[in-house]
Amino acid sequence: MTVMAKFVGFCLMTGLIAAAALAVPPMINYQGAIVDSNGVPLNGTVTLRFSMWDDSVSGTYLLDRAARCAGDRRTL
């Protein structure tokens, strides 16, 4: 195998590894607590709404999802 072929192979492998490392994950992990205005954890079913924007100040709207979640004082 020539030096040029080894170099091209190395570049291709490096590119594939870099592309895999920079891929967008299919899920976003998040955690938090749902509380009322007094800081008391909520019981029962609540609707959570998630919005995504490409900038925190004057961004473009990207995504909006709502999900109903049932929980108690320990979990949601």
Order of helices and strands: HEE
Strand order within the widest beta sheet: 1-2
* Helix/strand class: alpha+beta
Return residue spans where pLDDT drops below 50 for at least 5 consecutive residues: none
Q: Helical amount among residues, as a percent range? A: 25-40%
Question: How many beta-strand segments?
Answer: 2
Portion in strands: 25-35%
Q: Give the integer mean of the pLDDT values.
A: 76
The count of helical stretches stands at: 1
Overall outline? elongated
Any idea what the radius of gyration is?
A: 23 Å
Number of domains: 1
Largest sheet: 2 strands, antiparallel
Quote the distance from N terminus to C terminus.
58 Å
